[in-house]
Each structure stands twice: as structure tokens, then as C-alpha cells.
Amino acid sequence: MAGSFMIGARLVAAAIGLCAAWSPGFAQQPDLVFRNGKILTVDDKFSVTQALAVRDGRILATGTNEDVTARALPTATIIDLGGRTVIPGLTDGHIHGIRAALTFGTETSWIGVPSVKQALDRIREAARLQAPGSWIIVAGGWTAQQFSEKRRPTVDEVTAAAPDNPVYIQELYSWLLLTPKAMQALNIREDGDVPPRGRLGRDAAGRPTGEIDGDGNTLLAIFDKLPKPSFEQQVAGSKRFFRDLNRYGETGIVDGGGASMYPSSYGALFRLWRDHEMTVRVAYHLSAPKPGSELDDLKDLTQMLPQNFGDDMLHFNGPGEILVWSVWTDGDITADARERLYEVLRWAAQRRYTIQIHWNPNRTVSSLFDAIRRVDQEFPVHDLRWTVLHLYDATDETLEQIKALGLIWDTQIGMFFGGERMLRQRGEDVARRAPPIASAIRLGVVVGGGTDAHRVAPYNPFVCLQWYLDGTSVGGLQTRAPDEAPTREQALGMWTKVTAYMANDDDKRGTLEPGKLADFAVLSADYMTVPVGEIGRIESLLTVVGGRAVYASGPFANLEGTR
User: Fold this and answer.
1) For residue 1, how many other CB atoms are within 10 A of its CB?
2) Geometric angle at alpha carbon 262, from 259 and 268, rounded to 5°
């Protein structure tokens, strides 16, 4: 009873505080006003207002132009939005952003490149800028389906574009191209030189072509042999990558950790945080770094990392995405792997950790649910915000289990690159509901949004939002049926309100409501009315984090860095 009274008292005090902010005689007046816009608050009513008031990095109010402007300080900065749409800052609910940032300044990107010819031009440009003998690396974010030629570049084409450099080109987690200089540098001559499950492509005479087929473990093992950027290059790359996320209206990410992420991988991020140079709020998960000793390693790594340890810019969000390596697979789950999974989940629940867990495919997901039910009998998990990732072929029965266990389902843009493959391998019935977003929402499942970038997907959130709505792959094929599309409002909520909840930050951000952090983006086009096929071309003209303009262009270019 006493606890209920105290909670009620705090709520009343908060309400009085909000009212007082606008009452005569009180000093809480906005020092920054954005007016004459279309502000999508993404509150419970999806309210749309004209103006937004900010003070000390937080939102004071939204409302009409007249009401908000009339209450501003005489010295307040008034910014005219010119009728443009404003959304809460986007948060990617599952991205390997820390890893992508480390090499962002030293890799060559093929994200969004429309043809093999232009992809090769980027290799030529990298060869022109880099010293002979230095590595040129394309570490994912593309697929042959995006090229007008509908094919991959050949080894001969890539070698001709960069004859003096070793070149590494990775497509998703299944195919790799190495030029002769790269093969020589990595000492790859025979199948035995390739990690398990990797196969060398060969020409008609049986000679290795430089192409390698394999799985994620194969390609990760080869990638880990490549030269790493210096620490200063990692810091610079991280700053550049976060700024590029700002360009797309992103103000936060939930980082999944993942393969090839070790304790040393976080140094550049911590440097930016310490130096107050972060422009994206990061909630990060730690994966088990190697197979065989997952629980012991996670216990060791988290000894001084309680849940949510950190601040508003950077905090620990629990273990994930790889908790047990032997269940990070599309294959069958052994009895030993199921027991080890249970032990890790039990430990996480006992410590009240939020987790993210990678899972594919649906046919094995009962192993995960069985482990969670066992844990739940000892340590309830319903309020821990545990998230199941991927699971593109989820059935209605699976979605009902997710809801019953109090889990979150975070669905990414994997089928944007993999729709044709899903159709070819699983058939039309499965592909047309991969993933079943609308069905999940109808069933009451909490559905989050994200990209899983950058090796298997582009990191542009508006490409993801467009794909949620039209189900059309990068190759132009509509694989998912329209009846599994969310509404525009639901899709935006998946990238704002729900992902803030996944980050344990829903009390601080995710909507544009009084008291929340002033994180928002002014868009180049109206997300709510632009044709669906044009959503992927939207960018931010002004991205604000905590009341500070971290990215600005066009009519707002002079505001960057200001508060």
C-alpha cells in the first residue's frame, strides 16, 4: 500500500511539474522552438502538432505555433520548419553498428550501388587513393540482385580494377571473392587452407578461381585474418559512421554485438564516449566471444556490468546476440546445446539482464521456447524485455508463444536481400509471409524494427521502412504479400517507440512528449504521404540529439553543432 501511495505521489508531482512549466512566474520556458511543421509525436494517439518546444535538451511541449511560441523566452531561438515533417529520432533495434564503425573509414562500400560497372569504379577509385599493396575490402552490404546486370563481378574484372592491391569482396555470409594477391597474402591454395565448410571455386582446368563458397563461420574466420585499422582509424571511422546514421535521422542504436566482436573491439566507442563526441545513443549487447566456454566468458566479461550501466549516451543492455554458438545455426539443435542454452538464459534471468538472441529457422524455435519456460519457473522473464531476432518464417503458433512468454520480436530487413532466395528455397507460401509483421501486431506481439546491417543489409532506416510497407526486394521482386505489411504509423513506431523500449530507454525517448529527450529529425519529404516507393530516398535535413544539432544540411546547414 505504501509503495502504491509513493508511486501515485510521484505521478501527481510530475503532473504538477508539467503544468508549472507553463504557468506565469515559473522559469521553465523554452529556449528553443521549432514551429510551422508537421510533428509526428508517435504518442499513444499518434498526435500531429505544429510546434515543438525544447529546454535544456528536453522537450517541454508540443502544440500549435501560437501556444508554443508565445511561451518562449525573449532570447529563445525560433526555427521555422517550413511545413516539413518531424519524427522522433530513429533507433535501429538490431544492428552491428559498433563493428561496422570500426572499419567504416577503411572499407569500400557497395551499399546502394546499382551496377557492376559502378561497383568496379569504386574499386578503381580505392586503388587510386590507397598505396600499392594495401588491402581493398568490401565487407558486405550488397548483393548481386541490386546490380542491373544481376550478377557478381568476376575475379578478372576486380583484378583489372586493382592490379596492385589484394582485394577482399564478401557477399552476405555465403560467398567471397579474393584476387590473386589476396589469395597469396592469406596463403590460400587448396581447400584445406579454407576454414571448415569452405570450398574453393575452380575453373575448367581445376585451378582455384578466387571465389569461395561457405557459411558465416567460414567467412568470419577469413575476415579475422585481414589487417585491422589502427586505433585512430577506428575512432575516425566510428565518428564518420555515426554521422552517416545521423544523416538518415538516426539518434540511437541497439547494438547486437555478434561474431568477431571481442573486448578490444569496444575501445574506439569508449574513446568517443569519454571525449563526449558521440552523436548516436548506443545501447550495446555483448556476445559470447568464442564457442565452448560461453557462460564462463559472459560471467567474466560482465562482472562489473550491471544491467543499464552507463548514461544517456552509452549503456550496457545485456548479453546477446550469440549466447551459445552451437544454436547460432540453421541446423538441428543437439540436447547438449539446448542444456547449455538453458544455463546461459537462467544466469541472465537471475541477474535481471535484457537479452537479444539470434534465431533461425522457425522449425527449431521450440528449443528456445522450452529453455525460456524452464527458466521462467524460477526467475520470471516477462518484464526483462528479452528479444528474439530474425525468425523470418515465424508461424502464428510461434508468434503466440512469443506473446505468451512476454518476448519482443525484432524483425529486420534480411528479406530485402534474401527474398528471392527464400522464394526459391521455401516456396511462395512461406515467402509471402516472411516476415509476418501484420499478423504479429494483430496478435498483440511487441514488434521492433532494425536492419541487422551492415554485412547482410543496408543500414539506411528508410530503405527498411519502405521494405516493411511494400515487401519488395532489392532486385525489384515483391516476395512478401501486402496483407503482412504494417501501416505507416505502425512501422514508424517499430523504429521509435518499440526500439526505445528494447533499449530500456522508453521513459527517456522514442516519442516527442514532454519530459523526453529532445531527439528528433526533420525530413526531406513527408514520410506519411510520399509514395511508398520513394520512402527509401528520404533523408534528414536536421538531426537533433538532446537539443543539439548533430547533422544539418540544406536550409538548416548553419545549425550544425548548435543547441
Assistant:
1) 5
2) 115
Structure confidence by residue, pLDDT tens digits, 488-537 = 999 999 999 999 999 999 999 999 999 999 999 999 999 999 999 999 99
517, β-bridge pairs: 58
What is the pLDDT at residue 264?
93
pLDDT for 26 beyond 50 = no
In what order do the strands lie in the sheet containing 51-55? 58-63, 51-55, 32-35, 77-80
Domain 2-83 has CATH 2.30.40.10: yes
**0.70 exceeded by the pTM?**
yes
Amino acid, res. 294: E
Q: How far apart are CA 250 and CA 545, in angstroms?
A: 9
Cell readout for 8 is 501515485
User: Above 50 in pLDDT, residue 116?
Assistant: yes
Inter-CA distances, 174 with 169, 324, 418, Å: 11, 21, 12
Residue 446 region, left (φ>0) first, then alpha (ψ -120 to 50), else beta? beta
Read off the DSSP letter of residue 478.
B
| CATH homologous superfamily, domain 231-545 | Metal-dependent hydrolases (3.20.20.140)
* Chain CA centroid to CA 120, Å: 28
How far apart, in Å, are the Cα atoms of 242 and each of 102, 235, 239, 295, 455? Answer: 11, 11, 5, 31, 16
Reduce the DSSP state of residue 294 to 3 states and report it.
helix
Which stretches of 230-384 are DSSP H helices?
A: 231-247, 267-274, 294-301, 335-350, 365-378
Distance (Å) of CA 231 to CA 103, 137, 267, 282, 314: 10, 18, 8, 20, 20
Which segments of 13-139 are extended strands (E)? 32-35, 38-40, 48-49, 51-55, 58-63, 77-80, 85-88, 90-95, 136-138
Kind and range of the H or E run holding 549: strand 548-552
Hey, where are the domains in the chain?
2-83, 107-223, 231-545
* Rg, C-alpha atoms of the chain: 24
What is the spatial order of strands in the sheet that 199-202 belongs to? 136-138, 167-171, 175-178, 208-213, 199-202
- The sign of the torsion formed by the CA atoms of 562, 520, 413, 505 equals positive
Is 255:283 a contact under the CB 8 Å cutoff? Answer: yes
| 120 vs 132: CA distance, rounded Å | 17
452-463 pLDDT, tens digit per residue, is 999 999 999 999
Find the farthest-apart pair of alpha carbons in the chain and give their distance in angstroms, rounded.
87
| Residue 530 grid cell | 510520399
Please say if the pLDDT value at position 1 is more than 60.
no
Which positions ≥6 away from 9 have C-beta within 8 Å?
none
E strands, 421-519, are 446-449
H-type helices in 483-554, by residue range? 488-494, 497-502
Question: Do residues 41 and 519 lie in contact, with contact meaning Cβ atoms separated by under 8 Å?
Answer: no
Whether residue 85 contacts residue 37, with contact meaning beta carbons closer than 8 Å, is answered with yes
Judged against a pLDDT cut of 80, whether residue 4 lies above it is answered with: no
